[in-house]
Design brief:
about 475 residues; mainly beta; seven-stranded antiparallel beta sheet; five-stranded antiparallel beta sheet; 2 helices; about 35% strand; globular
Length: about 475
């Protein structure tokens, strides 16, 4: 019961956590030889270019870019070396420019240039094809000169590309190897990748937006949870797009119910989690610690007479307290249901009293005799995946947790709230999904409404196109534990 209000029944469900556990995937050195094009583009037909120096896409990997949009390399040992493959600059259509000239350089964590700047062009590129964009061994002459970098110390370094206007890098690879030449995958990352998948046929109804993105990416959260997101056969077509992850969603108000809503425009400034094309190397990105939650079986009154539920966790994470007035164990917006969310951040006390003002979701005050259930959910490794300007997601994508293994319940359920997106998705999926749906099932995180607003694809005005994902940030979330 609730003290003082004397509510006649509160059924308190025991703690449950959302787990998505899979066996740790072991990648031998014989199968992972590079960090770049061949990971982002699994086959030669899967062209994925770096889309740098464009302010509409977060100024990814450009000089002076915010730390959320930098392209990082992590060294665990100063004896390691970075081996670099770069093509000349490409046109946005996926064809090489005649000279294709741009500069690149590497900075340390203090923002000082420690390598370069060096000019890349058609005369000195060392990756002019998908086949060449791979690590070919420390003795390969292709790595002579500025195509290798030995760090003065272990730690994080970041790569910048400089050009007049945007620089599109057609083929690229950044592989860290030890002194013996063994590659160390899982060291290349960014919090906000800007990528371009150039057109194939450029015909109606998709025009330029007709090439799939089939990569597998990995996110690493601040609390040490690694998730794998597989886009193979997902029908994800974005042309130029940003991908990033956050703990609370694309918004920055501090109100999680608002911040996790998808929204019009780009929100890359809020990018948070590290994103890789290989499983992040545990030498620099270790496992998090699996946590637990405990809470009181009744609400209390604090010193100001406010209602609150005492909760304690063993590790930072997110606690959702659902006051379920229609007794279906799911939060239903625009009803009497109330959802109270509290985030335990690193460094915060691990005990709190989650406040409730006594109002139901419809604004009415809880009354004597009201019956409702209380469902408490504790989650770690919260993943909010935001894609900006992704025009199609025809079939949907799947997620798995790689590590740590918390010995929990298996799930790959996806959640979203697209209430602020004015268009309709086109696939029949609901605009809000709070119960979670199984990946790649009917209506589970798909969209395909897009109109190029052109009769023949020859004079497309990007400012005039409309679509569910077009120029919007669509957010999807799940829970590592």
């Amino acid at each position: 019961m609730i003290k003082r209000l004397q509510t006649s029944r509160i059924k308190l469900y025991p703690f449950f956590a959302l787990f998505a556990i899979c066996s740790f995937l072991i990648f031998g050195l014989t199968s992972v030889k590079a960090e770049g094009t061949q990971d982002a583009a699994p086959t030669p037909a899967d062209v994925v270019m770096l889309f740098t120096n464009n302010p509409d896409f977060g100024d990814f990997a450009s000089p002076g870019a915010d730390s959320t949009s930098r392209l990082y390399i992590t060294f665990c040992d100063p004896a390691e070396k970075l081996y670099i493959k770069l093509s000349r600059e490409y046109n946005a259509t996926g064809t090489p420019q005649a000279t294709g000239s741009y500069n690149f350089q590497i900075r340390n964590s203090a923002d000082a240039i420690v390598h370069g700047p060096f000019n890349i062009n058609n005369f000195n590129e060392n990756a002019s094809s998908w086949a060449e964009a791979t690590f070919t061994g420390i003795a390969d002459a292709a790595y002579n000169g500025f195509y290798t970098f030995t760090p003065p110390a272990a730690g994080d370094y970041y790569i910048e590309f400089e050009n007049i206007g945007q620089a599109v890098i057609g083929f690229w690879d950044f592989t860290v190897a030890d002194a013996m030449g063994d590659p160390k995958p899982g060291r290349l990352w960014s919090r906000n990748w800007a990528l371009r998948t150039p057109q194939i046929n450029d015909v109606l109804p998709e025009c330029e937006w007709d090439r799939d993105f089939n990569a597998t990416i990995y996110s690493y959260t601040a609390d040490g949870f690694v998730s794998k997101i597989d886009f193979e056969n997902s029908g994800f077509q974005g042309l130029s797009f940003n991908i990033n992850f956050t703990t609370m969603g694309p918004g920055d108000s501090g109100d999680l119910l608002m911040d996790r809503k998808s929204r019009v425009g780009n929100t890359t400034v809020n990018a948070e989690h590290r994103i890789f094309f290989n499983p992040p190397d545990p030498c620099a990105f270790p496992d998090g610690v699996c946590g637990t939650v405990s809470f009181e079986t009744q609400f209390s009154c604090d010193q100001n007479g406010e209602l609150c539920l005492p909760v304690t966790v063993s590790q930072p994470g997110q606690v959702e307290t659902l006051l379920d007035f229609n007794n279906n164990q799911v939060y239903d917006p625009n009803t009497e249901d109330v959802l109270l969310i509290y985030c335990f951040l690193p460094g915060d006390p691990l005990t709190t009293c989650i406040m409730w003002d006594g109002n139901k979701g419809d604004g009415s005050m809880v009354a004597m005799g009201d019956n409702f259930n209380v469902v408490v959910t504790y989650a770690q490794g919260v993943q909010h995946w935001a894609v900006f300007d992704g025009e199609f997601m025809k079939n949907g994508f799947c997620v798995e947790v790689v590590r740590p293994d918390c010995q929990g319940l298996n799930t790959n359920k996806l959640f979203w709230d697209d209430e602020l997106i004015p268009e309709m998705p086109g696939t029949g999926q609901p605009k809000q999904q709070f119960a979670g749906c199984e990946c790649q099932t009917n209506g589970c995180r798909t969209w395909d409404f897009f109109d190029p607003m052109d009769a023949d694809c020859f004079s497309v005005d990007d400012d005039a196109t409309v679509g569910y994902g077009d120029k919007n940030t669509l957010n999807t979330w799940w829970f590592a534990q």
